[in-house]
Amino acid sequence: MSIQFLSDENGRKLAVQVPIEEWEKIKAIHPDVEYLSNDLPQWQKTLIDKRLETIKLNPNSIKSADDLFQDL
What we know:
single chain; alpha+beta; extended
């Protein structure tokens, strides 16, 4: 896929351009893609912040996915 990035004067990527043919393929596979939003609801942001703080305070509490499956 040939994509192009739009960057600001500091080189930070702001947007991406996808050829229309590729976009049509993406839409065929994921029909709701045009209706997705990048914004998380505040309750999700708050939950993520709480979980990150918990991890920061107790990094040994993290388990790998393999460990979690073994516990099941």
